[in-house]
Amino acid sequence: SAMTAKQVADALVAYTKALCAAIDEHKGVMHSLHGDHAVATFNASARCAAHAEKGAFAAVRIAHRFGAMAL
What we know:
This protein is an alpha+beta fold. Helices cover about 55% and strands about 15% of the residues.
């Protein structure tokens, strides 16, 4: 069935919180979120040791979190 406007808004808030939490958890910096894509960096605006690995771990965390979200 179709989602109500409130359900869509709530889902977008949950999506944004989960995305930002995963990036922050791995010491990344969220720069922008537009529609269905986000821009985050690891070691650009803030120093981050092992930034490549942390970026990859953040991506895996995001995939797991969104896989668990029923939208």
